[in-house]
Amino acid sequence: MVSRDIDIDIEFYSRDREPRRKDKDLFETVEEVFDKATVLAVIELMRRRCIKELKGVISSGKEARVYWAKGFDNEDIAVKIYLTSTAEFRKGILKYIRGDPRYEWITSLHTHKLMAVWARKEYSNLKQMYDAGVRVPKPLCVYRNILVMEFIGENGVRAPLLKELNDAKAIDSNMAERFFIDIIDNIYKIYWNAKLVHGDLSEYNVMVYRDLLYIIDVSQAVKIDHPNAHEFLYRDIQNIVRFFSNEIGIKTPRPEELFNGIVKGIREIT
């Protein structure tokens, strides 16, 4: 799998034709990383002036890669591309879509359609959270299996995860206490303002940029009337409490106290 930077400019393409013969090398470079359907989806987003240049990989997982890219105002943007749908992935998403009438039908879809719906689900969840005042990357557009959003970082370097910052011993006790309160406040906003539950929140999907926390990876978020919403909410809180109390070492309220406070609409942490 090729990991070197990819640089595609929209000037190579026009709305009424395939890539020209002289663009063959560029097109093949892209195809080494993506299948043809994904390449065409990237080109369509360029035609729609959502992406100008696609640069290098900034994170890579089993089901998706995130790329640093440039928009038409030369702004940094992040492009998340869902790549495959493994049996393990299908099994993993079942707990999030069972009980959610918006998406219960998607597991019967073949790979590309499943990933396209999952990308749209993340876009929708991001938009609900962003509009509700939750600090998440601003969603910009979505097409097929590709989600485009605000880039959290600078000059193609993504902001560190909360986990990475702690591993680097860069979080002192005062910062940790402030971060903890901020995350719990955002969990509250997700629940009461966005009417969602993240469902997989931990130190691995919180970024720290310019001393602010950004919650990421929200594709699995569920509505608060989902039958497992409270189970997921409690687990999110438990993960955050475990990290701040066990890994960083600050004193925190018990998970059940925070959970009960949030579901009752109590915002203050005591």
TrEMBL record:
Sorted alphabetically, which CDD domains does this protein's record hold? RIO1_like
Molecular function (GO) terms for this protein are: ATP binding; metal ion binding; protein serine/threonine kinase activity
Pfam families given in the database record: RIO1
Q: Which reaction does it catalyse?
A: L-seryl-[protein] + ATP = O-phospho-L-seryl-[protein] + ADP + H(+); L-threonyl-[protein] + ATP = O-phospho-L-threonyl-[protein] + ADP + H(+)
Give the signal peptide, or none. none
* EC number assigned by the record: 2.7.11.1
Enzyme category, top tier: transferase
Q: Which InterPro entries match?
A: Kinase-like_dom_sf, Prot_kinase_dom, RIO-type_Ser/Thr_kinase, RIO_dom, RIO_kinase, RIO_kinase_CS
Entry keyword set: ATP-binding, Kinase, Magnesium, Metal-binding, Nucleotide-binding, Serine/threonine-protein kinase, Transferase
Q: Where is the Protein kinase domain?
A: 52-270
Family label: Belongs to the protein kinase superfamily. RIO-type Ser/Thr kinase family.
Official protein name in the record: non-specific serine/threonine protein kinase
